[in-house]
Predict the 3D structure of the following.
Amino acid sequence: MRLKQNPKLIGSNLHDCRTQVGACPLHCNQCYYNREGAFYCDINKTHIPSPRTVGHGIARMNAGHDSNYRRGEVIRQAKKYKHAFYNTSIPQFDFPGPVVFTANPKEEDVPTIIMAKELPSDEELKKIMFIRLRVSASNLDLVGDQISCWVRLDIPVVLTFMAYYEDNALQKVLEKVPEAQVYYEWKVRHVNSYYCPTKNFKKMVMKRMNRIGGRLVSMCGTFESNQCVDCKNCETFYWQTMKHLNGE
Ligand code: SF4
């Protein structure tokens, strides 16, 4: 039986693969994976497409969960595919292929990897496809600091704009930045409704962050679309990283 495809990935060259079941222990703020009934497939079952289904496409390990959680099985399954990359917010990068690192899973706090100056080794840096940073209206200074750090190491940064399904979560942002009310609008994103960032907010942030990190900074999606087929960052950076790993 063909597995249900993530609506965000439709038309792209990416295929979700998740070997873990049940709730993710990391509980990132507003992640739709742990929110009951919100994820696009049953989280109590694995989601492992056949190598034939993925074919020459790219397996995206862990759209839900984290590739460093029960990593042995994640790596074992990933090796079945011609192309695969990993996703983690835990600073351990010794995967046998490219990895996306979410450097600020607690987006309102200063990331520990920077505080401790525990930056990855050169070998590890080669494997990082890009740094993913979670962006809110109240963490822009922290995001700017992170960008400065990573672009100095020549690592691309992709910004993911936070969307909020809980009033309380948005309220915490607005307590710090009351004028940010106009930066969010309630609407459907993929399958669920959220307070989503407006196009104006995203444009304003990208302008500010591109001034810091230049063309190494881009965003997840485009100003018009959240679909991977319209963005292609993951595919593009996957192939670039493979070239570096192959010494090209
Ligand atoms: S960065 Fe682009 S390709 Fe990657 S998950 Fe986001 S929208 Fe999809």
Notes: DSSP finds nine helices and nine strands in the chain.
